[in-house]
Every structure is written in structure tokens, then in C-alpha cells.
Design brief:
Mean pLDDT: 91
CATH class: Alpha Beta
Largest sheet: 7 strands, parallel
Order of helices and strands: HHHEHEHEHEHHEHEHHHEHHH
Pfam families: adh_short
Helix content: 55-70%
Number of strands: 7
GO molecular function: 3-dehydrosphinganine reductase activity
InterPro entries: NAD(P)-bd_dom_sf, Sc_DH/Rdtase_CS, SDR_fam
GO biological process, one term: sphingolipid biosynthetic process
Oligomer: single chain
CATH topology: Rossmann fold
CATH architecture: 3-Layer(aba) Sandwich
Shape: globular
Low-confidence stretches: none
Transmembrane segments: 12-37
């Protein structure tokens, strides 16, 4: 009788709609509360986990890599910096040389900590497979590896396709090949060399490996097609690797940062298409020091996918896929909101590209 009365009461239907929405909203809010907690810097936590560890950092001559190396050295880690080191100033020193000096100045105990550098291009397959075993032998194994190398080349695919066709005919590396070789194959080659050498030398696998991808490993749009292809590929590789290494207790993490105030980001903005700027919208580029802290804290708090700002966390939650979730219950309950966020973003991106195409077509006709 009570239930039959409720069916005729409009308030029952309002509650039937509002309660699920309220649960979704609260769950979505809790996801971001946990995200903020994961970013909170803890000197005690980092010191306890990195002091005395032997840690390789790739891409360590600038940006996130250098900031990460400095942070780790500050809390007592032994840091091996890896970068190409092919540039040279009037003093004959590369950015990698200067980075080593900066890291040593940050070290907790510079007299007793290992702060050394290796000049290694991660596109050079043969050299990678020669150098990595030497590094493992010299330091009697490695505890952590952080792969923060990479490059970007924003541009409209239709324009880059013409450039790549010309480069191919001239026997040169194309834009797409450079992105894939640097961002994807560089990480795969280094990982292969690391695990093959560890097995041959009968050394334990690293206890933790952090791969730096990008928030653009969760969403792709005009202007970043080649970059996204390389980062999506890295994400697929790391997702599978995490699963395969479960029996070996090696902890794998994938960092999905948003914009960082680095030399690479500055160079991106010089050539980035106007429509790409509009799709991205206004976003603050975080200092690499802050991004390094977010990455290390996220790893130490055992997040598989690590993000550094609200937008990247939102996109991470919306495009999680078949992977280990950070907050399973809340993310499932918030999934309707995530679906709406996805739809709003992609519709906006489609409209922006369509608008710019029509605008450029009118200019050509005039």
C-alpha cells in the first residue's frame, strides 16, 4: 500500500533522480579529494623511500628530468643522469654537464652520494644495449628507473604529412618517426636492455620504474596527432608490462602530466596551431619542480596512473580503460559524470576544428 502511494507522489520520482545524481556528484568530488591528498608533499615519506637508492633518470639535462634528479639527490638518493648531451656552449659544456653540477649542489651528502652522468641517445639502439649492462655492473644493480625523456612536434597532420613525404624522399627521418623513436621506442629499448642485462647478470629487477607519458596519452586531437600516437603507444606498453611483472614485485607507474613550464613546452607554443591552442583552452603550465614532487609522491602512495593537476586527473578518470584504478568504488559511481565530461570535450574539439577549417577556406577563396 505504501509503495503504491509513492508511485503517485511526484516527490518519489524527484528523489529517484536526485539520489543517484547526488551519489555521482559526491563520488566525483571524493576522487579529487583523494587526488589532492596524493599530491601532498611529505619529506619524511620521500626520505624514507629514496635515501641510499640507486636511481636512473633519463632526459635529465632539463625540464622534469633535471627537477626529478635534484629532488632525489636532495633526499639522499644516488642519481645517475642520462641524456643525449650532444649540445655544447662556448665553454665546451653541455646542458647535461650543467645539470650534474646543479644536482650535486642539491645533494644531501655530496661527498658520499653518487651523482654521475651518461651521454646516451635513446634512439641509438646499439649503444643502449652496450651501456645499460655496464651501468648495472658498475653500480651492482639499480633500484629505481625514471624515464622522463621525450620530444614534441605540434602541427596539423595534413601539413606534417607533406613534410614527411619530402623527408622520406630525401632519406631523412620524418617527424612521425622522430616522435615514435624518441617517445615510444626509446623507452621500450631501454626497458629491454634493462631486463635482458638484469637476467644475464643475475641481478634483481628494479623495485620501481616510472614512465613519463602525458595527459595526451588519454585524449587526442588536432595538432598533437603524432605526439599522441607515441604516448598512447607508451601507455599500452606500460599497461602490459605492469601486468607481466606482477610476480616479480617490480612496481610500475605511468605519469600523465599536464602542461609543464619547460623548454620543450616553450618551443611547442612557438609552432602550435591556433586551433590546438583553442582546444586546450587556458591552462597553467606547472613548474617542473612541482611536477617532479607530484610524480614521486604519487608513486610512493602507490598510484599506478599518476597525474599532476585537476584537468589531467579528470581525463585520467574518464579514460581509465581496462587498468588498475585508484579509487574503484568512487570511480564506478562517478562514471556517468565522466561520460558527460568526455562527450562535452570531444564535441567542443570537433566544433573548434570545423570552425577553423571553414575560416581558412573562406580566406583561400578571398
Amino acid at each position: 500500500m505504501w509503495f503504491e502511494n509513492q508511485l503517485t507522489d511526484f516527490r518519489f520520482y524527484i528523489l529517484l533522480i536526485l539520489i543517484p545524481l547526488l551519489i555521482c556528484g559526491i563520488s566525483y568530488g571524493l576522487i579529487f579529494i583523494f587526488f589532492i591528498i596524493s599530491r601532498k608533499f611529505s619529506p619524511t615519506l620521500i626520505s624514507k623511500n629514496v635515501e641510499g637508492k640507486k636511481i636512473i633518470v633519463t632526459g635529465a639535462s632539463s625540464g622534469l628530468g633535471k627537477s626529478t634528479a635534484k629532488l632525489l639527490a636532495q633526499y639522499g638518493a644516488n642519481v645517475i643522469l642520462i641524456a643525449r648531451g650532444q649540445d655544447s656552449d662556448s665553454n665546451g659544456k653541455s646542458r647535461l654537464d650543467y645539470a650534474v653540477e646543479e644536482v650535486k649542489n642539491c645533494a644531501k651528502d655530496p661527498e658520499n652520494q653518487i651523482i654521475e652522468a651518461y651521454k646516451l641517445d635513446l634512439k641509438d639502439r646499439e649503444k643502449i644495449f652496450m651501456e645499460v649492462p655496464s651501468i648495472l655492473t658498475k653500480y651492482n644493480g639499480i633500484d629505481w628507473v625514471i624515464m622522463s625523456h621525450g620530444c614534441s612536434a605540434p602541427g596539423e597532420f595534413l601539413n606534417q604529412a607533406i613534410q614527411d613525404a619530402e623527408s622520406t624522399m630525401a632519406g631523412k627521418e620524418t617527424i612521425m618517426e622522430n616522435l615514435i623513436n624518441s617517445n615510444l621506442l626509446g623507452s621500450i629499448r631501454f626497458t629491454e636492455a634493462l631486463f635482458s642485462a638484469s637476467q644475464k647478470l643475475k641481478m634483481e629487477f628494479p623495485e620501481r620504474i616510472i614512465y613519463v607519458a602525458s595527459v595526451l596519452a588519454t585524449v587526442s586531437f588536432s595538432g598533437y596527432i603524432g605526439y599522441c600516437a607515441s604516448k598512447y603507444g607508451l601507455r599500452g606498453f606500460v599497461d602490459g608490462l605492469r601486468n607481466e611483472l606482477i610476480p616479480f614485485k617490480t612496481k610500475i607507474h605511468l605519469y600523465l602530466p599536464g602542461n609543464m613550464d619547460t623548454p620543450m613546452f616553450e618551443n611547442e607554443n612557438k609552432v602550435k596551431p591556433a586551433c590546438t591552442f583553442e582546444i586546450e583552452g587556458p591552462s597553467k603550465a606547472l613548474h617542473p619542480d612541482e611536477c617532479a614532487r607530484c610524480m614521486i609522491m604519487g608513486a610512493l602512495r602507490e598510484r599506478y596512473y599518476i597525474t599532476n593537476d585537476v584537468v589531467s586527473e579528470m581525463l585520467r578518470n574518464s579514460s581509465q580503460g581496462f587498468n588498475k584504478r585508484t579509487n574503484v568504488v568512487f570511480e564506478v559511481l562517478a562514471s556517468p559524470i565522466s561520460a558527460i565530461v568526455d562527450e562535452v570535450f570531444i564535441r567542443d574539439a570537433d566544433n573548434v576544428v570545423d570552425k577553423f577549417y571553414k575560416k581558412n577556406s573562406l580566406k583561400k577563396q578571398q
